[in-house]
Amino acid sequence: MTRKTATLVLDDGSMFHGFSFGFDRAVAGEVVFNTAMTGYPESLTDPSYAGQLMVLTYPLVGNYGVPPFSIEENGLPTFMESEKIHAEAIIVSDYSEEYSHWNAMESLSDWLKREMIPGITGIDTRALTKKIREHGVMMGRILIDDETGMKHGGIAGLNLQPGSLHMPFEMPDYESINYVDRVSCKEIITYGEGEGKKHVVLLDCGVKANIIRSLLKRGVTVVRVPWNYDFNKLDYDGLFISNGPGDPDTCDEAVRNIRKALAGDKPICGICMGNQLLAKAGGASIYKLKYGHRSHNQPVRMVGTEKCFITSQNHGYAVAGDTLGADWEPLFINMNDGTNEGIRHKTKPFFSAQFHPEACSGPIDTEFIFDKFVELL
Ligand SMILES: NC(=O)CC[C@H](N)C(=O)O
């Protein structure tokens, strides 16, 4: 089998040559690395990866295949975190077309092709990751060789399709794009309705299925609303703010609505983007981390205790802990780099986590966050 060559070109001009194993299309995005050893079906369908080229540092990828896209009774996909792949592309060291797993239905390559998502293999992902760690996250583009293997400009395998070095397509300005608006639901969706159940408004900034499932498991009705919907007009018992892609500073409409809710006493909980938006509504500011936290083994300490939890994470921005208002305090701190990993209000039932207690994939140490929230309703 002849494989098309593919090249990752970083914003600083450096190039990494490999082979295409996904859909042959030029794409651009923010290049981020994830050090988890498993979980590519969940990570690729996590809407928080919209606009990003996902580098997996675990060297062998694809050997357990891809599960089917089956839908549960509650309307949620069983094995995926949303209805489609949201990452712009996947970059690996050693793609395995051969796979074996009890629920595997197809190869990663076949899935990527069907969803029109590029994948490149044969990349020195250690060298790439070291570069990103030293320089910070960078934009990058993936260019695919054409059928004839034409070579242009001295760079093997680059053709003149839009996106080549000769006809550069516009590099997206990751920070200014409101990716949340692209991935959020467009209308209200209700899950788990039933007599006498508490109603949780879920502000959908790009919610992962397992967040909804984690709430439903605890016997509440989930009313999923678009990210910029003014939920304050609804009759509800608690507010849950989801994860989501991109820069939280693009979501001021949501921040304004959350701020209105802060005047009341109904429980509020947030995850990842939800933590950032809650912090912003409370007056704190957000900054961009050099290369983010994306893994299954981020240790966080619960402030005021000696308890450490191992958490699943996927974020590039963080709450500036020293900008929290007088009514707020840190709830979790990252034990690797000391950054803020969650906040809580000093007197009201408002709290949030920067990590992913719903896991999927990753450790489930912090699932108790859902219990706490539902107890407070
Ligand atoms: N998973 C998320 O919710 C990510 C939040 C935000 N987009 C960040 O990168 O920090």
UniProtKB/TrEMBL annotation:
Pathway: Amino-acid biosynthesis; L-arginine biosynthesis; carbamoyl phosphate from bicarbonate: step 1/1; Pyrimidine metabolism; UMP biosynthesis via de novo pathway; (S)-dihydroorotate from bicarbonate: step 1/3. Transmembrane segments: none annotated. The keyword Amino-acid biosynthesis applies. Residues 4-143 form the Carbamoyl-phosphate synthase small subunit N-terminal domain. The keyword ATP-binding applies. L-glutamine binds at S48, G244, G246, M273, Q276, N314, G316, Y317. InterPro entries: Anth_synth/Amidotransfase (IPR050472), CarbamoylP_synth_ssu (IPR006274), CarbamoylP_synth_ssu_N (IPR002474), CarbP_synth_ssu_N_sf (IPR036480), Class_I_gatase-like (IPR029062), CPSase_GATase1 (IPR035686), GATASE (IPR017926). Keywords: Amino-acid biosynthesis, Arginine biosynthesis, ATP-binding, Glutamine amidotransferase, Ligase, Nucleotide-binding, Pyrimidine biosynthesis. One of its GO terms (molecular function) is carbamoyl-phosphate synthase (glutamine-hydrolyzing) activity. Its EC number is 6.3.5.5. The active site is at C272, H356, E358. It catalyses: L-glutamine + H2O = L-glutamate + NH4(+); hydrogencarbonate + L-glutamine + 2 ATP + H2O = carbamoyl phosphate + L-glutamate + 2 ADP + phosphate + 2 H(+). It comes from the Bacteria. Residues 1-198 are annotated as: CPSase. NCBIfam families: CPSaseIIsmall (TIGR01368), PRK12838.1 (NF009475). Composed of two chains; the small (or glutamine) chain promotes the hydrolysis of glutamine to ammonia, which is used by the large (or ammonia) chain to synthesize carbamoyl phosphate. Tetramer of heterodimers (alpha,beta)4. Small subunit of the glutamine-dependent carbamoyl phosphate synthetase (CPSase). CPSase catalyzes the formation of carbamoyl phosphate from the ammonia moiety of glutamine, carbonate, and phosphate donated by ATP, constituting the first step of 2 biosynthetic pathways, one leading to arginine and/or urea and the other to pyrimidine nucleotides. The small subunit (glutamine amidotransferase) binds and cleaves glutamine to supply the large subunit with the substrate ammonia. Belongs to the CarA family. This is Carbamoyl phosphate synthase small chain. The lineage of its organism: Bacteria, Pseudomonadati, Bacteroidota, Bacteroidia, Bacteroidales. The gene is carA.
